[in-house]
Amino acid sequence: MRNPQLNKNGELQHLLTLDGLPRDVIVSILDHAAPFTEVAEREVKKLPLLRGKSIFNLFFENSTRTRTTFEIAAKRLSADVVNLNVSTSSTAKGESLLDTIDNLCAMHADMFVVRHAASGAPVLIAKHLQAAGRDHIHVVNAGDGRHAHPTQGLLDMYTIRHYKHDFTQLTVAIVGDVLHSRVARSQIAALNTLGVPELRVIAPKTLLPAEIEKLGIRVFHDMSEGLKDVDVVMMLRLQNERMSGALLPTPQEYYKVWGLTEEKLALAKSDAIVMHPGPMNRGVEIDSAVADGSQAVILPQVTFGIAVRMAVMSMLAGQ
Ligand code: CP
Prior knowledge:
It is a single chain. The strands form 2 sheets. A 5-stranded parallel β-sheet has the order 7-6-5-8-9. Strands 2-1-3-4 form a 4-stranded parallel β-sheet, with helices on both faces. 42% of the residues are buried. Helix content is 35%, strand content 14%. It starts with 22 loop residues before the first helix and ends with a helix. The longest helix is centred in the C-terminal third of the chain and has 20 residues, at 298-317. By secondary structure, it is of the alpha/beta class. The radius of gyration is 19 Å and the shape is globular. It has 11 helices and 9 strands. Helix 2 links the parallel strand 1 (54-59) and strand 2. Phosphoric acid mono(formamide)ester (CP) binds next to helix 2. The site of phosphoric acid mono(formamide)ester has 10 residues, from helix 2.
């Protein structure tokens, strides 16, 4: 069966998840992103690849990095960008998601960038567009519930490739609240597809999905064992907004056991990089000395995110 994100020519039609996205498509996005990093160094930071296209940013959930970098990326590609203010839009009066989409289609939208608290919202929109024969309109998932955050996963892969070059030589550890994390799901899918031979998660049992080992992952419940000799440490935020019931002791106790400090990081390889998708909770999952330290590549992740989002949007709708 054809991957629903690809059109009949095998090109990207939508970007909804990294699960099942072929390796050559992921590598192609990373390769496309590389020259876009140079656009930021130019006096005129613009390319005409999306000139005349209308891109609608639909963020039904809070965001700093993703919303802003999608907007910057679209503007650097010369698209017209509309940021729907959800709190003052008609969704606040009870309009359904798909009615909102139909109305924006009537305004000749070319692409929707969607963040939603409900897992599956971007897939629902993509299927709705397909049923209406609107194959010229593209959907990019900017994070849906616990399901997926594909552009975050891609910018993380770009960052790892930039610093570490060869995925097939790496030991990578993902640390923290995997259970509620759409970022972790996208990272795991991409790291497996790109051939990382040793992928670890380090977390308390209450913050891990059932049967995670089936994804080809080594599970650790001890930071000193899990961090030993890793090349890449990918920290996760405690996603309190998606937790129901008490899964944890206090943030202070969590930090004592699971927080990444300089002492714990010393167990990883001496040239290990530390990543975090943001927003960070300093003193909960990560110590400030690590977040601001020489091994952290957290702010480069944000910068690479612009180039990766330029690559995705130009591959979907570029001239
Ligand atoms: N990483 C990430 O999705 O950050 P935002 O919530 O600020 O977009």
